Inverse folding.
């Protein structure tokens, strides 16, 4: 993209009109996103993080250190303290003599995995309930809207702690707890959009053609709410990652010895005066990932701006 | 005469608006013969579009009944309504709002075919491209989005969508009022060509009287949710009986500007009253230059007046005689 510094509006218009296929709103959004350097940089970081997560075993292989292997001799000082970064342990070791680099790589699997799965679950539940509430109205709307109010009024952390301590920490319960408390805002956003959209004439047109409610909801209305949904989704992922780390930090994450970022930061609490690397590197991983997702989300929001006919973004 | 394709009897539609009830359509009866065009005219807010949506069963009726092709469709469930939807289509007013911005044109036009499972994908595509040709669009633009088209082209897309299921009746709800005048003529002529080609019946709603004269065989004039006069185009344009019709028609610009002198301009005082609180008696009486005392108390029935033929109905207690002018000052003198 950087080789084509300025694309004028006329050139873009010409391109759109000489192309019989026609550029859809999504194609135009992608084109705008591609022109956004910050967003593309963030996307690169996100992709890098995903690669680190996917190829975590490669890190273990290269260093020769399995994620849960405790090196009591090589990995700890004679005093039994963590070792600083060196040629064997590139990012140092933790209090049990485990390789922090390898554990960060494995932790990325948990963070990104929970982030994506919990977000997707949230989105599906939120979108479907929001669609139903907004489109069907009446009793359905009443029930769902009250449910949304209820969920949004519950103090999340308190209930999360209670639920996890009752059922015991596990990946599934983490995902479920996070989704249970995040779908409401999504449902609210979608419901608002649907209320506006269902009064549009194209919905009436579909009805006059004989389309069923279900078809109108998913074929005609859903594609029109996807823009805010996608924006919200990208911005939800970092929130979920942080929430997951928070739960782990509080001891409600995965049972030991699983490596995850929140848990690592938690373990590092007692050592930060003597082992800065122990707390710094997992925190950096968390920080970089969430910042990248947030900046990407901002870029996506600009790209799928409702003013879809705006071809050139001001720089 | 053949059986009417569409019969509306005493159709009433009310909307609850807070504590008030709005009678948007009030006891309207009309019939449309196969192959004809019934023009429905009236001011903005008189209930034309609401009536159209009631007839098309896009709104549930508050009262009365609608029969399509001899079948009462006024209380069918949406499932049992589906076979009738194929035969009765709507062209909407707003070419921007009525096309889904996120769907490709081919999929919009073929929507009816997909809903009613006509043919397979390839067959539908062929039909859609044929339809695009019929309405004057380039079939190669099948995969474009509505945003790539102008207002007139978008309305052609709407026409193609309405035609796709080969309906008998098309309800045109102000199909050209959102378009430039030069484009209006093209779309109107397209609709007329399609009518003769596919033997279509139109319920044509507009507030543009020159258009209604051009396209209609019969006209119904609505005022405040009621039909005040209905008859053939000739009857209404030569011997309109209702003062409102006369005032409305006086606003039609003449085709020949030099002959404009023969027209009598009537400017009605006041605005359309609120349907929340309609006037007593004849709904037109507060603005009527011929108002007399009984107009305030008595609702005039829609019936033939002054030995008109039975097709020409007027709801007025003091209809205008043939050749009589609608002249407020003379009326004051006579009263």
């Amino acid at each position: 993209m950087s080789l084509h510094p300025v694309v004028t509006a006329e050139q873009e218009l010409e391109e759109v009109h000489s192309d019989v296929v026609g550029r859809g709103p999504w194609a135009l959004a992608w084109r705008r996103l591609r022109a956004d350097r910050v967003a593309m940089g963030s996307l690169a970081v996100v992709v890098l993080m995903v690669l680190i997560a996917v190829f975590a075993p490669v890190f273990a292989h290269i260093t020769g250190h399995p994620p849960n292997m405790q090196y009591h001799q090589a990995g700890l000082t004679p005093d039994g303290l963590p070792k600083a970064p060196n040629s064997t342990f590139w990012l140092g070791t933790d209090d049990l003599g485990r390789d922090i680099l390898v554990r960060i790589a494995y932790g990325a699997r948990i963070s990104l995995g929970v982030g994506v799965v919990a977000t997707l679950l949230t989105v599906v539940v939120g979108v479907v309930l929001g669609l139903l509430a907004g489109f069907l109205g009446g009793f359905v709307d009443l029930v769902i809207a009250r449910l949304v109010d209820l969920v949004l009024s519950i103090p999340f952390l308190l209930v999360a702690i209670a639920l996890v301590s009752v059922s015991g920490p596990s990946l599934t319960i983490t995902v479920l707890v996070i989704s249970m408390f995040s779908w409401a805002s999504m449902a609210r956003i979608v419901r608002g959009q649907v209320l506006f959209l269902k009064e549009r004439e194209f919905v009436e047109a579909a009805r006059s053609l004989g389309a069923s409610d279900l078809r109108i909801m998913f074929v005609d209305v859903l594609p029109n709410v996807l823009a805010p949904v996608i924006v919200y989704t990208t911005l939800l992922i970092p929130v979920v990652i942080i929430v997951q780390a928070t739960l782990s930090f509080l001891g409600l994450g995965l049972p030991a010895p699983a490596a995850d970022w929140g848990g690592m930061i938690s373990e590092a609490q007692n050592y930060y005066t003597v082992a800065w690397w122990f707390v710094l590197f997992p925190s950096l991983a968390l920080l970089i990932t969430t910042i990248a997702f947030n900046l990407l989300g901002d870029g996506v929001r600009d790209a799928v701006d409702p003013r879809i006919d705006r071809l050139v973004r001001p720089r | 005469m053949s059986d009417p394709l569409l019969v509306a009897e005493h159709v009433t539609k009310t909307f609850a608006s807070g504590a008030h009830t709005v009678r948007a359509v009030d006891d309207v009866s009309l019939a449309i013969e196969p192959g004809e065009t019934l023009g429905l005219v009236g001011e903005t807010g008189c209930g034309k579009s609401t009536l159209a949506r009631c007839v098309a069963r896009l709104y549930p009726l508050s009262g009365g009944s609608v029969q399509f092709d001899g079948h009462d469709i006024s209380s069918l469930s949406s499932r049992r309504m589906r076979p009738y939807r194929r035969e009765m289509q709507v062209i909407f007013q707003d070419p921007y709002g009525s096309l889904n911005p996120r769907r490709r044109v081919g999929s919009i036009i073929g929507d009816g075919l997909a809903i009613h499972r006509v043919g397979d994908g390839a067959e539908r595509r062929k039909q859609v491209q044929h339809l695009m040709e019929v309405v004057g669009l380039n079939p190669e633009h099948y995969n474009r989005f509505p945003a790539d088209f102008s207002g007139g082209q978008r309305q052609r897309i709407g026409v193609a969508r309405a035609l796709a299921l080969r309906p008998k009746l098309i309800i045109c709800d102000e199909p050209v009022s959102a378009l430039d005048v030069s484009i209006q003529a093209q779309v109107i002529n397209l609709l007329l060509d399609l009518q003769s080609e596919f033997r279509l019946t139109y319920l044509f709603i507009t507030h543009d009287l020159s258009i209604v004269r051009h396209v209609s065989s019969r006209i119904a004039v609505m005022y405040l949710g009621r039909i005040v006069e209905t008859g053939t185009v000739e009857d209404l344009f030569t011997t309109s009986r209702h003062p409102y019709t006369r005032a409305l028609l006086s606003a039609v610009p003449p085709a020949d500007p030099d002959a404009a002198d023969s027209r009598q301009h009537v400017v009605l005082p006041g605005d359309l009253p609120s349907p929340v609180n309609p006037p007593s008696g004849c709904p037109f009486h507060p603005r009527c230059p011929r108002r007399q005392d009984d107009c305030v108390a008595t609702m005039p029935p829609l019936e033939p007046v002054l030995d008109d033929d039975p097709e020409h109905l007027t709801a007025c207690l003091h209809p205008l005689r043939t050749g009589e002018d609608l002249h407020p000052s003379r009326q004051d003198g006579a009263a």
Summary: Chain B touches chain A at residues 53, 56, 58, 78-79, 81-82, 85-86, 88-90, 92-94, 97-105, 111-112, 115-116, 140-141, 143-145, 147-148, 158, 161, 165 (CB under 8 Å). The radius of gyration of chain B is 21 Å. Confidence is low (pLDDT under 50) at residues 329-335 of chain B. The longest strand of chain B covers residues 20-32.
